Every structure is written in C-alpha cells, then in structure tokens.
Amino acid sequence: MPKLSPAPLSNNGNNTQKLRKIVMVDFKRDTAAKRVASPNDGKLKRAFAALPFFGLSVAAYWVLNASEAVPFATKMVQSRQVKWDEGSVPFRTGPFYHVVWLDNLLSVINTFFMSAIYGYDSATREQVIAFLIDGGSLLAVWWFESLRRTPGKVWFLRIPWAFALAGQLFGIGVVSPFFYFLHRVFSPAPETCAARPPTDQRQVSAILPVVVLGYLLPSGAMLFSPGLDNRQIWLFIFQLYPLFMVLAFYILSSILPSGSGSTRAANLKTTQISLFSLAALAAWSWIYTCYRGRAGEIFLPTTVPRWELPDFEGFCRQFLRWDQTFAFSSSLLWLVYLVNDLKAVGQVQAGWLRVVSFGLACLVMLGPGATVGLGWLFTEESLDPVPTKKSGKDKRSA
Questions:
Q1: Fewer Cβ neighbours under 10 Å: the N or C end of the chain?
Q2: pTM
Q3: How many C-beta atoms surround the C-beta of residue 10 within 10 A?
Q4: Distances (CA, A) of 283 to 6, 134, 276
Q5: CA 49 to chain centre
Q6: DSSP of 106-121, one letter per residue?
Q7: Measured between alpha carbons, how far is 368 from 133 in angstroms, rounded to an integer?
Q8: 356, 335 in Cβ contact below 8 A?
C-alpha cells in the first residue's frame, strides 16, 4: 500500500489563512446584519432610538412659532408698502396664482423675506443667500433617498417635495428633523439598501438640473433680479418651488437619455457629479462669508424670534437663523445615525474619532451644506462598493 504524504504547505498555508480571514469577516458582517435586521428591532425600538429627531422637531416648532408675528406681517400686507430708512417699494399681494386663499397666505409668508430680498438688513440678506445655497445640497440628498426601491407602505419617503412644501409653511427647521424621524423608523435596514439602488438612470440624472432649475434659479432671481418689483414676483414662485421641482423632475426624467444602462456604477457616478457640484457651490458661499469675517454675526441666533417683537425685522432675522440651525443640525445628526448603521454591518471600518474629526473639519472649512452633501455621499459609497472588472486571469480562474 503506498504511503501517503501531506501536500506541501508553502502556498496552501497562505491560502488557508486568507480563506479563514474571509470567512471570519463574512461571519461578523452576517452576524451584525442579523442583529440590525432582527425582528426584535421593531418599529417601536427604532422610534425610541430616533427620539432625538422628534425632540428637535418639537423644539423647532416652539422656537419658530410665528403666531405672534402674524399681526405685524398682516400690517405690512395691508399697507401695501415695504418701507426702510433709505426708501420703499410697493408690496405685491396678488392676484398671482389666482387662488384667493393661496395668494393671501403667500403674501403673509413673503413678508418674512422682505429684509433679505431688498437688503435693508444686510446680515439677514447674507444669511439667506448662504442658507438657500446650502439648501440645494439638502434637497438633492432628500431626492436621491426618495429614489430607493422602498416598500409601498413607506410611500411617504418617496415624496421629498411634500416635506419641502411643508417646510415653506412651517419652516424647514421643523420639518427636517421630523422627516429624519420617519426615515429612521420606517426605512429598511442598511444592509438591504445596496440591494435597492435607484434603477432608472434618467431619474438619477434629472436631480441636478431639477435642483438648479426648480430651486436655485427662483432663489437667485428673487435675491438678485435687477427690478425691485420683479423680486417679489420671483418670491411668489419660490414659495411653491417644491411643486415646480417635482414637475421638472417628471419631465426631465422622461426625456433625458438613459446612457449606457441603469447600473449601480453609472448611477453612483452621476450622484457623485451632482453632489460634488452642489457641495462646491455651498462651500464657496461658506468660504466667502468666513473670509469677510461675518460668519458668527450672520449665522448664530441670539434669542427666540418672537421675543424680538414688536421689532418685526429682528423677528425675521432670528427666525431665519434658527430655521437654518435646526435644519442642518438635524441633518448632521442623521448622518451620524447612518454611519453608525453602516459600522454595525461592517461597511464602515473607520473609527468614530476619525469619522467625527473629518466631519468637523468639513463643517468648519466647507460649511453645513457641503458637509451634508459630502457626508451623505460617503454613506452612499459605503453601502455597496462598486465591483471592479475582473482581470483576464480572474476570468480564466473562474
């Protein structure tokens, strides 16, 4: 009987170690995924974990309560004049959309922006410009999230325009944390997100032009239009920008070319281009403001808005600052939750010190809008790395 001798261990030993590492990594990742997606991790538990967002929304609703300012806004509407030390312009009350209740409502809301669009409060004007530019990144993130193939019962996560429209009425600072609360409670577990990427490349490609045409264009026109009266016309358009965005989205997503196919790689590349572009614009605005040395004066709220009354101009100044503060603080907190989910399933390996340090550096150097856009892009890239093409050697071995 021939004597059996063991095979050489020179290569097999290394292969065994590599296989053992792969198995252990997969085991840890699968175990973490099961822990995150466990049936015990029900809606009630997720709602409890998301309570900070609900608390932020309630706090924002209290701080941004504008009921006491309505009589002062109504007075401006009835006077049909916007007056400041250096001059005045007629106040446009409509008819604009030729819906009486809508024109009346928007006329009152428009009074909050008079000091910004006409610049008789320079700090408010600069803050609103930066706020609206940062909002481009925020809206793009919401819209990209809405394209995921979520279950039908969470349809409300697919209508970002509705939350943006509610933000025009109650303040985006109130609506943003509430949106994130719903997202935390009802969105699927993170390890399933990679299996639910947007499938229509035309929809992904439409988001950047939709944000530019439907949001940034009316925002810029209401602030920089050469005709003073024209600014109020654009302000009426801006108030309903979410509806114009969704209309533009459906039109553009139906006529844009689909490219080489709706692949994960193509969609991710388009997403990167969109968010890098909007983040660059937001970063430029932030750096310019900081260069002028007015960041603290412009962005930091100092008191509850209604406590400024009867100074309506002071009320608007504090209201808009708090609105921005709540909107982006909740957005940054949401990113922390997303990173924590990805760390739990092993798709983010960096430690918290590195993640937080990088985030704070971006926040200080690039501003909140760019940080939200780039931070969300980081989580999107971490969900499911785009597979690389196999080499010829790999194909032969397969």
A1: N
A2: 0.83
A3: 7
A4: 63, 8, 10
A5: 21
A6: HHHHHGGGHHHHH-SS
A7: 10
A8: no
CA angle centred on 336, ends 154 and 288, rounded to 5°: 110
DSSP characters over 276-335: HHHHHHHHHHHHHHHHTT-HHHHH---S-GGGGTT-HHHHHHHHHHHHHHHHHHHHHHHH
Q: How far apart are CA 373 and CA 277, in angstroms?
A: 10
Q: Which two tokens stand for residue 114?
A: 């008079």
Identity at 361, one-letter amino acid code: A
> Which residue, chain included where needed, has tokens 């101009």?
313
Q: What is the dihedral of CA 312, 318, 321, 325, to 10 degrees?
A: -140
Residue pLDDT, tens place only, 74-127: 998 988 888 877 778 888 887 899 899 999 999 999 999 998 999 888 889 999
Of 216, 235, 239, 217, nearest in space to 227 by CA: 235
Average pLDDT, the chain: 83
Determine if the peptide bond prior to 39 is cis (ω within 30°).
Answer: no
The tokens for 186 are 């009802």
Amino acid identity at 385:
P
In 3-state terms, the chain is what percent helix, strand and coil (to 5)? Answer: 75, 0, 25
Given pLDDT bands bounded at 50, 70 and 90, which one contains residue 262?
low
